[in-house]
Amino acid sequence: MTDAARPCVIAGNWKMYKTIDQALSFLDIILPVAPKCDCEVLLAVPFTIIESAAKKAEASPVLIGAQNMNDASEGAFTGEVAASMLKDAGAKFVLLGHSERRTIFKETDEFINRKIKRASEIGLLSVLCVGETNEEREGEKTREVLKQQLSKCLEGVKYEKGKLMVAYEPVWAIGTGKAATNTIAEEAHAFIRGVLRELYGEEVANGMPILYGGSVNASNAATFLKEPDVDGLLIGSASLGAESFAKILELRQNRANT
Ligand code: PEP
Q1: DSSP string, the chain
Q2: 98 is catalytic
Q3: What is the pLDDT of residue 63?
Q4: Is the CB of 235 under 6 A from ligand 1?
Q5: Is the per-residue pLDDT at 165 higher than 50?
Q6: Which of 9, 34, 96, 213 could form a disulfide with 232 if both were Cys (CB 3.0 to 4.6 A apart)?
Q7: Catalytic pick from 40, 169, 186, 227?
Q8: Residue 169 designated active-site
Q9: Is the CB of 70 under 6 A from ligand 1?
């Protein structure tokens, strides 16, 4: 079970899916469910949806955020979006370092580090994604990779409460239908918390939510949430359907009263 010092966070990553109308219909279903659940709900939506979704979710506990941003404050970067623009559109958070950004768009830890610093300057919560490839796991390099990604991405990042979370997303589990086991997830999360302890000290490490992501669905979500260092979930495909996402949220229903 999640440590009382840490909130449970259920986040969805919509990737490059949904129109504004589809997003608003999704929210029609999710907005009445979210307040009954003992968790923070985050939705990382396409840029085009941020403003209308954020307006619709304004009076609710659902936070709308982005899936990426540029590290520069502004400038001649055709096609890019700045942190201040995300905030202006109503975003409260941004996913940074997702493996699809790292592999397809060749983003480096150094670039991600600059983005986290910019997001923090603007007041956006950064959800930093880290995780090893299958090859790295098989080569027993998981810890080394996680430590390197965390140390480089967080180098010089000052901790501010509520402005940083980590998502453990093993690359081999993303979009493959092959989720990690709860034991693998717990082992990686405990290791990540240890690295956070080295970087920020005991109190910060104990208070920072670490989410698991990779082929989570309504059938396997509960097994992860039982683990002591798994404070929530980052969900891709199963966050696209309002019914499947609601089922996952409902795992936390009335949790405070049980
Ligand atoms: C993701 O894209 O962050 C993710 C975890 O995807 P999926 O749940 O589809 O594996």
Answers
A1: ---TTS--EEEEE-TT---HHHHHHHHHHHHHHGGGBSSEEEEE--HHHHHHHHHHTTTSSEEEEES---SSSSSS-TT---HHHHHHHT--EEEES-HHHHHHS---HHHHHHHHHHHHHHTPEEEEEE---HHHHHTT-HHHHHHHHHHHHTTTPPP-TTSEEEEE--GGGTTSS-PPPHHHHHHHHHHHHHHHHHHH-HHHHHHS-EEEESS--TTTHHHHHTSTT--EEEESGGGTSHHHHHHHHHTTBTGGG-
A2: yes
A3: 98
A4: yes
A5: yes
A6: 9
A7: 169
A8: yes
A9: no
